[in-house]
Design a protein that fits this description.
3-stranded antiparallel β-sheet; alpha+beta; 12 helices; globular
């Protein structure tokens, strides 16, 4: 971290540059710790966060010869907020954003909105989301836009960390990544996302939010075997944005709607929600949500699933819904898994079914064994042995 205070004889431009670098670095550290604590620790609950084990904090510049132990969830969130508030201060007067790959103050405000939403600080979550939609209100209208959705030039993309995405990782000459039927069928026929972000053949549903083609089209070189598609499509197409480390305006509208609903400001919640939906549904369709109370909260949660699908939000959302003070909700998840004789083989060995029960300890991942082995005495998360049942062939 290059602090401007270390440049006592610097020019104004040099100080501004140092502030920008430190602001971006603090944003990234806050973002990384946010991911880590939500993967390897229990979801944030104010009454237990000071006792729940989080992840180790290492915030010194020096390389230290020490064995690290886990800080509490509260300490990790305090560090995240400290970094983001400092980033907000440092990036406040550093000029326009340099590129999609360089964080600016709006990027920081969006992550602050997300963090406060997870901490159930509804007013702060609303305020920061409102700052984002005030600064960057534009949304892609799927009625008129024919370009690929997650592209570098999109008016609603605020920040991206490179071009890593699902299709490039999982559609390259191996068993194709398939979208869950439950997700695909949740989209209504008037929802343009259903045909623009996915392709379907038989009972197989594929994902095309990121390819360069304008509409949902089948990838090239498809073969079909044992209820799976095998494809070498998309291998030569590099995505300009990541679909998992992406910050875009649509999330800010959803954060604003959710926080408003918890605050019983239902008209504001519906306004934010329906503005987003107006850009995703066929013109003239009945897209407006008129519900209130718990039904409105459920509609907002469903909309988050549909809008942010496969962008790295769903797992974290399910975890935090389970500890929500207004409307707690935990989901039982069933996954079927096919075992093949080899990585690129089409010979099926068996099919397995795994179940994650409501409020299952498995909602918190174990620490990597290498971390436990290196840091003697570090406590791991307790999880039941995961078993499966065989699905008859």
């Amino acid at each position: 971290i290059a602090a401007a205070t270390k440049l006592p004889k610097a020019t104004t431009d040099q100080i501004q540059g140092a502030n920008r670098v430190e602001g971006e670095a603090r944003f990234l550290r806050g973002a990384y710790y946010f991911w880590l604590v939500n993967l390897y620790a229990k979801p944030y609950v104010a009454s237990t966060a000071s006792a729940d084990l989080g992840v180790p904090l290492k915030i010194q510049e020096e390389v230290l010869d020490v064995l690290y132990q886990r800080n509490t969830v509260q300490e990790v969130y305090d560090q995240i907020l400290s970094d983001l508030k400092m980033a907000e201060k440092l990036l406040d007067n550093t000029g326009p954003q340099r590129s999609l790959y360089r964080a600016d103050i709006t990027t920081v405000h969006l992550l602050l909105s997300r963090v406060h939403l997870y901490m159930q600080h509804w007013e702060k979550a609303f305020d920061y989301a409102d700052k984002v939609v005030t600064a960057r209100p534009a949304l892609v209208d799927l009625n008129s836009s024919q370009g690929s959705f997650l592209r570098k030039e999109s008016v609603e993309n605020i920040f991206s960390m490179g071009g890593n995405d699902v299709p490039r990782n999982m559609l390259n000459s191996v068993q194709s990544f398939r979208v869950a039927h439950d997700l695909y069928q949740t989209y209504s026929d008037d929802d343009l996302r259903k045909t623009r972000w996915y392709w379907a053949m038989g009972d197989f549903v594929g994902y095309t939010k990121t390819p360069s083609s304008g509409a949902a089209t089948l990838p090239s070189n498809i073969s079909y075997y044992n209820n799976q598609y095998f494809s070498s499509g998309f291998t030569a197409v590099l995505s300009p944005v990541s679909d998992k480390f992406l910050y875009r305006t649509a999330e800010a509208y959803l954060n604003k709607a959710e926080a408003s609903a918890y605050l019983n400001r239902e008209s504001e919640a519906r306004a934010a929600l329906n503005l987003l939906r107006s850009k995703r549904y066929k013109a003239g369709s009945a897209y407006e949500v008129k519900a209130g109370g718990n039904e409105l909260i459920q509609r907002i949660r469903t909309e988050r699933r549909l809008e942010l699908a496969l962008e790295g939000h769903r797992w974290f959302d399910l975890r935090r819904y389970g500890v929500n003070n207004v409307l707690p909700q935990s989901k039982r998840i069933v996954h079927n898994y096919t075992v093949y004789s080899g990585r690129v083989s089409t010979t099926m060995v068996e099919r397995r079914q795994y179940v994650l029960e409501e409020n299952d300890p498995g909602y918190t991942l174990p620490l990597p064994q290498s971390v436990i082995d290196f840091n003697t005495g570090m406590i791991n998360n307790q999880r039941p042995v995961r078993t499966f049942t065989l699905i008859p062939r």
